[in-house]
Amino acid sequence: MVLRPAANRIRIRIRIRIRIRIRIRIRIRIRIRPRPAGQMRSSPCPGHDHEEVTPMARQSAATTPYNTGMLGNDSPRERERLKSIQTSVDAFTTGVVDGLPIEASWNCLELGAGAGSIAYWLAGRCPDGRVVAVDLDTRHLDAGQAANLEIQEADITCEDYAPGSFDLIHARYLYCHLPARDATVERAARWLAPGGWLVIEEPYHLPAGTSPFPAVQRVLAAYQRMYREHGADMTWARSLPARLARSGLSEVSFTGNLGCMGGLDKDRWRPVIAQAAPALLAEGLVTEADLSEFSGLLDDPAFIDIPQVTVSAWGRRPSHLPDGSARAGRG
């Protein structure tokens, strides 16, 4: 027997066939439970959880330019500023809402409730319904004002309500400060019940340079610039009627209310500028001399100016909706 060297010819063929079959089946069951009118959906924004506020429990909302600093409730003059708005505009607002076919059983939503005067008025106007007052900071709101009043601390740009929850939604001096104001109007329109009304009131600032008073020109120009730098649009109100119509609302109408600067007890701008003054000075937008001259004008009985127009616009959600969009969350 002759042995050939093992290394002479070695052919090794290795065939490896691997077949892996993986089948994954995932079954997801989602149960949607109807929410009572006014209950929010889960927040899509981290850190923006809403809190129902009672006299015994409050939770601070997220920090934004509008709850801190010049424009926020941390300012010691904020309460005075809110009161000046109520004194000068509440009669106009309630007149607009009273012009609607409002019923005692309506569920109402007050967005950006501020110091609460309109929410309290609605609670009395709709005693058989419910009023939800929501704001980013609710320290100036009192849940004990009415048994049918609910206060929620939340950021409405992140929170949501069930479609068809409210017969009336009102907002004043809110949307001009929101970054996605147009989209937020469309969302609010969806929160309306069939036949419900959306009423939005926003300021339209006249150009500072058109004032006949040089001191007002300087101070108002600085004030408007500060708002723009915080993302506000003080001329957006002009688009309100068209925005409501494009959000699917009908019977759209609007009116206006001229703002008063000066006129002694008719003035509402002294607390507004007083609150803004430290920030305006720090940014070098005005001088102490500018503010002193402006204050002197407000003390003059003959001084009257028109710095803005409040535009109030409203529209109604059609009563007959396509199948599948019926009123939800009405308990």
Describe this structure in words.
With 331 residues, this protein is of the alpha/beta class. The protein contains seven helices and ten strands. The strands form two sheets. An eight-stranded mixed beta sheet has the order 1-4-3-2-5-6-10-7.
Summarize this structure as a short list of keywords or feature phrases.
single chain, about 325 residues, alpha/beta, Rossmann fold, eight-stranded mixed β-sheet, two-stranded antiparallel ribbon, 7 helices, about 20% strand, globular, disordered C terminus
Secondary-structure blueprint:
Elements (H helix, E strand, L loop, with lengths): L50 E3 L24 H21 L8 E5 L5 H9 L4 E6 L13 E5 L12 E7 L8 H11 E14 L8 H16 L10 H7 L3 E9 L2 E2 L6 H14 L5 H11 L5 E2 L2 E9 L15
Parallel strand pairs: 2-3, 2-5, 3-4, 5-6
Antiparallel strand pairs: 1-4, 6-10, 7-10, 8-9
Helix pairs in contact: 1-6, 4-7
Give the helix/strand class: alpha/beta
Alpha-carbon distance between the two ends: 99 Å
CATH topology: Rossmann fold
Poorly predicted runs? 1-35, 46-65, 323-331
Proportion of residues in helical segments: 25-40%
Count of separate DSSP helical elements: 7
Assigned CATH class: Alpha Beta
Overall mean pLDDT stands at 81
Placed side by side, the strands forming the largest sheet appear as: 1-4-3-2-5-6-10-7
Count the E strands: 10
Strand content: 15-25%
**Which shape, going by the Cα principal axes?**
globular
What is the H level of CATH, i.e. the homologous superfamily? Vaccinia Virus protein VP39
Tell me the count of domains.
1
SSE pattern, N- to C-terminal: EHEHEEEHEHHEEHHEE
